Amino acid sequence: MTPLNDHLEPFRATLSNTLVCVTGGAGFIGGHLIDALLALGARVTVIDDLSNSDAGTIASQMDEYPEQLRFIQGSILDPISMNSAVEGARFVFHLAALGSVPKSVEEPARTWVVNATGTMRVLLAAQEAGAQRLIYSASSSAYGDNPALPKQESQAPEPESPYAAAKLAGESLCRSWSTCYGLDTACLRYFNIFGSRQAADSAYAAVVPAFLRCYLSSDPSEQSPTIFGDGTQTRDFTHVSNAVYANLLAATSGSPIKGDAMNIGAGQQTSVNQLASTLRELADAQGQPVLQPARIGEVQDSVADISKANTKIGYKPVTTLDEGLALTVSWYQQHANTSSRADST
């Protein structure tokens, strides 16, 4: 249970018995979004090729909600699978992506095809199916390493990795589809999402599960997590319940969004060193971080200005950083020997 549960009821009138599609729904954020949609009575079709996630969570959800949930194992790049997934859907939540910055440096072509071309395929399918709105999972990586803080949507994008460039291209596609084809779209720029069921190599806040995997290891030789860089780099670590809340707000907004990009974060700047210390204390761990060289494509500092999302869709965090970290540590302590994988196509 998270504080999000206290904020779900207003969405029931719009989403109960409403057909929606979630791309990448077997992944980390998608799985949490599906939990909320099913609890609200929505009928959900999920498309995921399971290339970066396993079917454990979605299988459990199907067991619990067999009449509400349909799963298609397929790629967003396949028009037949995609058209089937969006058929009759009022809202499309597009979370499918290849989400690793370092991996995008190694595989730029594949990253572009999945994250940019794939988004175009999803938009085209949603448009042809007559969907009302598509909610796109964008990324704060669009801002690059511009030193200006907090990050505001009015800043010129400066993507510094193939991942960031492809996700930014997805935003442009969303805006163009709203302008040219009448499909309303919303672009949610996530800031370092973390929470339960997240893999150590996940797309958004890999540092949180990676640290916890070390801190909770029974092997003393594996209890020292790795920090890339000197640990002074900062992020806006945001609990997954806030991302889910933003998706629900964007979907049910009564006003057209027209492809606008909105920051979805906690609005709190935290260094990686601070995070390591907090998690170590919460986990009652002994290991000390080990420093390694910084990774290519990673930015130094980031924190969100969330005022635009508040004005446009009424967003504000429902779970604080401290609450989210405590919930996450508790979950990993209970599931120390289990793991999941990241959002997928």
What does the overall shape look like?
Answer: globular
Radius of gyration: 19 Å
Structural class designation: alpha/beta
Strand content: 15-25%
Q: Would you identify the CATH H-level superfamily of the domain at 3-191 and 240-267 and 303-318?
A: NAD(P)-binding Rossmann-like Domain
Features:
single chain, 345 residues, alpha/beta, Rossmann fold, seven-stranded parallel beta sheet, two-stranded parallel ribbon, 12 helices, 13 strands, globular, disordered C terminus
Topology:
Elements: H1 12-15, E1 19-23, H2 28-39, E2 43-48, H3 56-64, E3 69-73, H4 79-86, E4 91-94, H5 101-106, H6 108-129, E5 133-139, H7 162-181, E6 184-190, E7 193-194, H8 207-215, E8 226-228, E9 234-235, E10 238-239, H9 240-252, E11 261-264, E12 270-271, H10 272-282, E13 290-292, H11 307-313, H12 321-334
Helix pairs in contact: 2-9, 4-6, 6-7, 8-10
Describe the model.
The protein is of the alpha/beta class. It has a domain at 3-191 and 240-267 and 303-318: Rossmann fold. It has helices at residues 12-15, 28-39, 56-64, 79-86, 101-106, 108-129, 162-181, 207-215, 240-252, 272-282, 307-313, 321-334, and strands at 19-23, 43-48, 69-73, 91-94, 133-139, 184-190, 193-194, 226-228, 234-235, 238-239, 261-264, 270-271, 290-292. The strands form 4 sheets. Strands 3-2-1-4-5-6-11 form a 7-stranded parallel beta sheet, with helices on both faces. Strands 7-10 form a two-stranded parallel ribbon. Helix 2 (28-39) crosses helix 9 (240-252), helix 4 (79-86) packs across helix 6 and helix 6 (108-129) packs parallel to helix 7 (162-181).
